[in-house]
Amino acid sequence: MSLSRADVATPHASRYLQQLCKHWAHKFQVEFNPVEGAIDFGDGRSCELAARDRSLEVRAIADDPEALPKLEEIIERHIQRFAHREGELVFVWSPPEG
How confident is the model over 10-36, as pLDDT tens digits? Predict the structure, then answer.
């Protein structure tokens, strides 16, 4: 399993977490509340989200390491679309700490 993580600075973390989860709830298994969310894409790929005071923590998880960059791109593109009024959000994907 491969995993990457991005902390995205935004004062609207809870809003974007909920929008992303609601957006994909019609198609995938999704669980969320205002501070945590999880999306199971059903093909060995998933996304976990956590809203902090000033950032959105995003974790992309894929069974196939080669699928991880595409998953990161899809997640990032969707959140950027929701944040269009805020401007370009900065995603720096890296392996998780610890």
Answer: 999 999 999 999 999 999 999 999 999
* Domain count for the chain: 1
Q: Which domain holds residue 42?
A: 2-82
Q: Which two tokens stand for residue 72?
A: 């990161």
DSSP string, 29-88: EEEE-SSEEEEE-SSSEEEEEEE-SSEEEEEEEESSGGGHHHHHHHHHHHHHHHTTTT-P
Task: Write down the pTM of the prediction.
Answer: 0.91
CATH code assigned at 32: 3.30.310.50
- What is the per-residue pLDDT across 51-74, written as a single tens digit (0 to 9) for each? 999 999 999 999 999 999 999 999
